[in-house]
Amino acid sequence: MCGVNEQQPVEPTEEQAVLDRIEDGAFAVLLVGEQETEFVIPAEQLPADATPGKWLRVRIEEETITAITVDEEATQEAAARIASKLDALRKRGRGSSGIQRIE
Q1: CA distance 62 to 64
Q2: How many domains does one find in the chain?
Q3: Residue 1 forms part of a structural domain
Q4: Which domain holds residue 71?
Q5: What is the pTM assigned to this prediction?
Q6: CATH of residue 55
Q7: Which burial class, exposed, middle or buried, applies to 76 when counting CB atoms under 10 A from its CB (0-12, 13-18, 19+)?
Q8: How many C-beta atoms lie closer than 10 Å to residue 58's C-beta?
Q9: pLDDT tens digits for the chain (103 residues)?
Q10: Closest C-alpha among 47, 16, 46 to residue 34
Q11: How far is CA 48 from CA 40, 56, 69, in A?
């Protein structure tokens, strides 16, 4: 068809995301991909085991999230990284900085 602007269908993509927060118990805020693009979706679309801080795999079709699964491996890796950083900060805090740590 000459002169008709037909759009080609966009291929679905799969991205990694983190469940940032749930607002008012009704909406989930996801940060998707390396750019941490914010998506707000109804909380009922989340898997039952999705909680804030969990890493997810999301399928995106035409700028809409169409599937979500919890990525347990990525969640455990992130938790290990955070624990390691906290441990390093605690050890650094015990040095001779003159600051006393209260436990």
Answers
A1: 6
A2: 1
A3: no
A4: 13-93
A5: 0.73
A6: 2.40.50.140
A7: exposed
A8: 20
A9: 455 556 677 789 999 999 999 999 999 999 999 999 999 999 999 999 999 999 999 999 999 999 999 999 998 998 899 988 998 888 887 655 555 556 6
A10: 16
A11: 17, 12, 10
